[in-house]
Amino acid sequence: MVDRRTFCTRAALTVAGALAARSGLRAAARMQPRGRRPVTVGGRRVKVIDVHAHCVVPGIMEMMGQKTTANAALMMGTSRLQQMDEQGIDVEVLSINPFWYAIDRDLARTLIKAQNEKLAEFCRDHSDRFAGLATVALQHPELAAEQLEEGMKMGLRGVSIGASVNGEELASPRLDPFWAKAEALRAPIFMHPQGVPELKRLQGNGLLTNVIGNPLDTTIALSHLIFEGTLDRFPGLRICAAHGGGYLPSYADRSDHGCLTFPEQCKGKINKPPTAYLKQLYVDSLVFSSEALRHLVAVCGISQIVLGTDYPFPWTSTAVDHVLGTSALSDADRVAILGGNAAKLLNLPA
Question: pTM score > 0.85 for this model?
């Protein structure tokens, strides 16, 4: 018969062993890399491609006398893989928001060359998880055209640009050499806003400079590209607008009705109704309800919608679930938005 002291000793050893084992399992779990979330549609694995993911290349801003951001999540690197895996993102398409539009031609040539080379090298080294978009000095249109061609020869999949250039609209005829080269190369163009800081009424609570300003910047840029005839002069352009195309898809019918009400503003200036141009533009899926996504598909067409997260900015961590959970979409629609459309647009393996 076991006495009380022996029983207690054995019990204590058993509990201690169990706790040690549990602790060891937890430590082992922490040491093991988390697996990638497999995304399936209709029982089939889908390759998910995020076309709206930001980065910066270390050491480039220093060429302008500035400092590289301290935001580690924004750095070009593999540290973002854990978040990608958790969200079900297989490939991020990396783009860099312009901060160089005010510099002279010589510095712009040197800076962009270094930036594109480093980005291309990183994407080549991690081609299963990352693709990159070239950067160009759009303030110097002929140089930008050269830089785009050089960047694509490096293996970059297209180009990223701002929604304006030092206050100049993208529809300015001065930028036509760049648009002509982009059309000739069939280069995907990811257009990202830079806010509309001149609107003083956006100050105050609510981060209106971003919440309203960024989509408004895109809306203005796209509207000028339509109404100034840029999309008619270069009908082969493959432009993808961030944040669901701004406000334009949500109220595009007003543009059509404006042409009916004020025909002198449209007749002879554009070749088709304003809403028809939305069918030749791409937009990302970064809208925030199933109804908004359904409407975006209805206005732009399912073939024109690609997945976007705005990583590492915390607008969403559920972009994949947003698409999967939108009941108005068919399985074929979901596959197209999650990665099929982006693979075709960017010439990426499906």
Answer: yes
